[in-house]
Amino acid sequence: MAVVTIVSGSPSHTSKTNQVAEWVKGQLQQLGHTVHFIRLRDLPAEDLLYARSSSDPIAQTHQWIHQSKAVIVLSPVYKGSYTGILKAYLDLLPEKAFAGKLIVPIVTGGTIAHLLAIEYALKPIFSILGAREILHGVFILDWTLGHDSEGRLVLSDDLLSRMEEVIHSVS
Ligand SMILES: Cc1cc2nc3c(=O)[nH]c(=O)nc-3n(C[C@H](O)[C@H](O)[C@H](O)COP(=O)(O)O)c2cc1C
């Protein structure tokens, strides 16, 4: 079984991206993987803003990434790119923090116009962080995400099969 870290980069407290991240976490745990979950909005804002890369909460997340075989990075599209909070966090990672790891991008967005944000925004920074194995990733249109009567996330059949592919590639 693998150790996997999920980095979820939405600042929103009702975040759809964080809901998807929780769903991914649940799937991986059901398969027996050890999952570390980094919800960036829960990290101390001042550590991110003032680049305190060795504060205890930030250093703990670096340890998790170091121990992981795979890192799944999620972000909503904001203004055509990934979020500012995700950039603030990635800036604090040690040099080549993603070397030797499988990196999986998952992005939610409101329009297909920014489908390529994974390619032009996320993949270059993953590469700078040393990643050489970056999955194609999944772009999710926010309005395709549904909920059941108990508020649990429901994925369309098409999205479910794309997400299952991602989950199994981590295994
Ligand atoms: C500040 C802001 C900027 C956004 N900019 C874009 C954009 O440029 N392109 C796009 O497709 N969607 C854009 N959206 C829509 C979000 O990407 C989409 O609703 C996403 O699922 C929100 O995720 P969240 O709930 O985790 O924040 C924007 C939303 C916000 C709040």
UniProtKB/TrEMBL annotation:
GO MF annotations in UniProt: FMN reductase (NADPH) activity
Pfam families the UniProt entry points to: FMN_red
Keyword line: Flavoprotein, FMN, Oxidoreductase
Its EC number(s): 1.5.1.38
Cited SUPFAM superfamilies: Flavoproteins
Enzyme class: oxidoreductase
Domain named NADPH-dependent FMN reductase-like: residues: 4-141
Protein name (Swiss-Prot/TrEMBL): NADPH-dependent FMN reductase
Native organism: Geobacillus thermodenitrificans
Gene name tied to this protein: ssuE
